[in-house]
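Predict the holo structure. Ligand: coenzyme A.
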Amino acid sequence: MTTVRDLMSTPPLVCGTDVSLADAALKMRDAESGSIIVVEDNKAIGILTERDLLHSAAARHNPSDERVGLWMTAHPDTLGPEEEVGAAWASLSSHHYRHLPVVDDGILVGVVSIRDLMAIASLRPADEAAHDVPRGLEGVVVSETTVGDVRGLEGFFHYRQYSAVELAERRSLEDVWFLLFNGALPDSEQSTRFNGEIAPQRVLPPGLLSLLPALASQGSPLDVLRTGVSLLGAELGFGATTDIDAPTLKRQATRLCAVVPTILTSAYRIRSGLEPLPPRDDLSSAANYLWMLTGEEPSVAHARALERYLMLTIDHGFNSSTFTARVITSTGADLAAAVCGAIGALSGPLHGGAPSRALDMLDAIGTPDRADAWIRDAIGRGERIMGFGHRVYKTDDPRSVFLRGVARSLGGPLVDFSCDVERTVVEALAELKPGHQLYANVEFFAGVVMDACGIPRQMFTPTFASSRVIGWATHVMEQAADNRLIRPTARYVGPPPPQPVPVAS
Ligand SMILES: CC(C)(COP(=O)(O)OP(=O)(O)OC[C@H]1O[C@@H](n2cnc3c(N)ncnc32)[C@H](O)[C@@H]1OP(=O)(O)O)[C@@H](O)C(=O)NCCC(=O)NCCS
């Protein structure tokens, strides 16, 4: 049995509470360590990490004047040296720590890092790992992809190796769409050709157009999309992904992604008693979306703000809806089936359904002075604060940081208020849910940006779907190109079988 003692680094890197942040940072740099244990009488009373240093730098404090005691996480969880590495691994992976102090009889004897544990974990027999899958598949690698990656601890994500945030700053939605579908960014000629290819495909096919009023009178725009995509697949004759070639699937994917915004905005307008508006070839995807929704040509600032939001939300690792789309594709089902399933997954409040709820929360809070009490009360009732926390990001969500900037550039009282509330929520969650690293996720500022662009709340999640569909379609193509049926196993934990079947009375 491998124990924590076998793995721990010793002696641990330590300092006292009175040491300056500058000196602590130097020690960490020299030791190439991401953390330092804060000790008093050889007892671990706190831990200071790179993240704490970043926070203090972001707050523009002078590191020579700040004391470690003020910035450390006090009373850190610890491990015993005789604990088996499996227990230590569970503790690290479920709480998202990167380092844990090792304490023997109250005295600090070492430190264990995730790197040390990973080394051992990777030596474990595969069947043991296969049976040890954490709830919610957290941290489990289920596939390989070249579409992109999310690095939760670094607060970074990319599409085909380009930082998604930089793409959102520098390129157009259509360029990023091209990148995902074709594996490389377009040059200007390819970009013009691709725009010309997409624009006419935004038009609804006649069968779907004729059924849309009936659908829109029955359900929300996202419901209409779910059903509409199914109809679209039937009308255009999408075939099983196992039966069609890659160029055919790509053609279907392009048509589907082009028409989704039209389905959504038409459904919204019909439901609001307005005539749906046909798409306009002369507008970019984002500007056309706002046009089809409101009937007004948007300002450049609003169209660009929305476009940036859309670019940031195209893809994000193996999130629930993307995984759903891939599972469905792995059965050989057609593109429409995969996207219908993905829309269903996205509709849940724990995935894509949060941005309108985040704005509802801002309404309920009302004024900045009420934020702290409101949030503590909600957490006391066991509620979740919408727009905060993330399965993968245990640091600032780069999408939320970027969108906060986009929101600020648009300005307005809601933006100032939401920034105040964000600070209050992060502080309250750090105190009330210690160790979980909860920060604003994409949904919090997404709602603020969409609201500033004139998008009604009921269209927040549908608008998210209008860009994420490009990511889903890309994953469908990747899964179809190198497919194996995704079919995991569950551990049966009910009463032991076989139970005699009673005869029906
Ligand atoms: C996104 C989310 C589902 C990820 O959750 P997860 O990785 O499964 O984390 P868990 O559900 O295991 O939660 C871990 C702990 O943090 C708490 N937590 C996580 N997010 C929280 C939130 N937004 N508000 C309050 N507490 C939260 C949980 O209550 C739990 O605490 P506990 O151990 O005391 O019960 C979760 O953070 C959440 O529900 N957020 C709100 C909904 C949201 O914004 N969704 C959009 C996601 S992009």
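Residues 246-271 form the longest helix (26 residues). Residues 125-130 have pLDDT under 50 and may be disordered.
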